[in-house]
């Protein structure tokens, strides 16, 4: 009954917006409805355009549900476990730096940097394959039910010795292993942990002060799990939710970054401006050449298999419905990624807009008591549609004002 009422309220609101003026504040009302039906306990949202223009930003709901432990308001300082957004914010961004500095070549063999993996056909894997998720790796380490006994050494040794599911460059299978493999390259070339390299080259220059692996301020993190799956047997707060990243000690190419919407506003503005950014003290600088951003955010054509993936970044998927970027992001001009914990980044160069949506939809038990996976897909999809609608309305407005 409550859900039906909420849904009607939302339908009413959307109808009004469609006829009248779509307001940015509608994004908040929309988000609150998903909080009310327990899709997630809270959220941070932001919409940006180039020129450091924040079109909309808001924080909603709470860290956990009413009656749960750690029940407290989400604030602008709340820190989210962004899960697979780490693949773009950290691993891909570091790779873009190394590529631009000429320290790696995209067609370098992976085993050039990780010689202990030179077996079972893995000598055919290139860095480009890792970025395109076409290296042949299985999606994940075969955890089955043995989480508790898997160490970093066991997991890496499996990666070095595993057989591939398909020949490199002949198919695409989204794989956490590809991003762990990429992390090994980054760490070999730089002689540093991927975290310290990302901090030095990306996070600190952009002024992303909160962004880090292994976050310290426990009270600021939105918790992700109460102890399920059982093998961790503890509340998961300020510790990475992802099992691979957890086993690797929290710093991983596939997951492990914690951040907030304010920091991701800085990051997505830089991406939308194809590498140009304003330093914290107001200077205009470049993080990447324009061509590098274009290369990593464009799905290459002419591959021997159907592909919509760019390098590290994703683009509009051809089939997967509902699309995280809705129906109105520009084909060939938009890029993004999603994270399992309920996080999304998507940008559109042509329409000059990017959005950030952070939630902890996995609280309290990874969608067991309330299945949230399907719900977050529709949340993102419609959110993206509402954002484009409002961007269009805003440009109409400025047209009239001229
Ligand atoms: C949760 O609420 C949103 C917004 O009203 C609605 O679209 C969605 O269908 C609801 N989901 C469920 C399972 O109630
Ligand atoms: C982990 O190893 C211990 C000791 O070898 C064994 O008793 C236990 O069953 C293992 N746990 C799992 C989940 O495999
Ligand atoms: C982030 O760090 C920069 C440089 O140290 C500082 O100027 C800025 O005020 C910091 N921002 C926040 C939000 O703490």
Automatic annotation (TrEMBL):
<feature type="domain" description="Beta-lactamase-related">
    <location>
        <begin position="32"/>
        <end position="364"/>
    </location>
</feature>
<keyword id="KW-0378">Hydrolase</keyword>
<keyword id="KW-0732">Signal</keyword>
<dbReference type="Pfam" id="PF00144">
    <property type="entry name" value="Beta-lactamase"/>
</dbReference>
<dbReference type="InterPro" id="IPR001466">
    <property type="entry name" value="Beta-lactam-related"/>
</dbReference>
<feature type="signal peptide">
    <location>
        <begin position="1"/>
        <end position="18"/>
    </location>
</feature>
<dbReference type="InterPro" id="IPR050789">
    <property type="entry name" value="Diverse_Enzym_Activities"/>
</dbReference>
<dbReference type="GO" id="GO:0016787">
    <property type="term" value="F:hydrolase activity"/>
</dbReference>
<protein>
    <recommendedName>
        <fullName>Beta-lactamase-related domain-containing protein</fullName>
    </recommendedName>
</protein>
<dbReference type="InterPro" id="IPR012338">
    <property type="entry name" value="Beta-lactam/transpept-like"/>
</dbReference>
């Amino acid at each position: 009954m409550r859900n039906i009422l909420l849904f009607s309220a939302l339908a009413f609101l959307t109808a009004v917006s469609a006829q009248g003026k779509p307001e940015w504040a509608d994004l908040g009302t929309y988000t609150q409805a998903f909080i009310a039906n327990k899709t997630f306990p809270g959220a941070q949202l932001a919409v940006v355009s180039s020129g450091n223009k924040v079109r909309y930003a808001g924080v909603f709901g709470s860290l956990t549900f009413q009656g749960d432990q750690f029940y407290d308001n989400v604030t602008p300082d709340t820190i989210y476990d962004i899960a697979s957004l780490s693949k773009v914010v950290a691993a891909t961004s570091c790779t873009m730096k190394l590529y631009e500095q000429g320290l790696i070549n995209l067609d370098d063999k992976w085993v050039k940097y990780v010689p202990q993996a030179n077996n079972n056909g893995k000598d055919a894997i290139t860095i480009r394959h890792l970025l395109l998720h076409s290296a042949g790796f299985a999606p994940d380490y075969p955890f089955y039910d043995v989480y508790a006994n898997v160490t970093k050494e066991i997991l890496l040794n499996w990666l070095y010795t595993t057989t591939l599911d398909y020949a490199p460059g002949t198919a695409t299978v989204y794989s956490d292993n590809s991003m762990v493999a990429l992390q090994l390259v980054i760490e070999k070339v730089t002689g540093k942990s991927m975290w310290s390299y990302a901090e030095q080259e990306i996070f600190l220059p952009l002024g992303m002060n909160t962004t880090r692996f292994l976050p310290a301020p426990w009270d600021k993190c939105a918790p992700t799990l109460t102890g399920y799956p059982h093998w961790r047997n503890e509340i998961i707060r300020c510790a990475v939710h992802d099992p691979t990243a957890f086993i690797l000690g929290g710093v991983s190419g596939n997951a492990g970054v914690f951040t907030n919407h304010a920091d991701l506003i800085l990051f997505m503005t830089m991406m939308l401006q194809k590498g140009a950014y304003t330093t914290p003290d107001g200077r205009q600088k470049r993080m990447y050449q324009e061509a590098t951003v274009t290369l990593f955010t464009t799905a290459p054509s002419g591959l021997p298999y159907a592909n919509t993936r760019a390098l590290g970044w994703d683009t509009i998927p051809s089939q997967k419905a509902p699309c995280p970027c809705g129906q109105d992001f520009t084909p060939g001009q938009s890029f993004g990624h999603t994270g399992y914990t309920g996080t999304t980044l998507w940008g559109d160069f042509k329409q000059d807009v990017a959005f950030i949506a952070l939630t902890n939809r996995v609280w309290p038990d990874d969608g067991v008591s309330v299945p949230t996976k399907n719900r977050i897909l529709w949340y993102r999809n419609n959110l993206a549609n509402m954002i484009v609608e409002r961007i269009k309305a805003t440009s109409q407005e400025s047209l009239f004002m001229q």
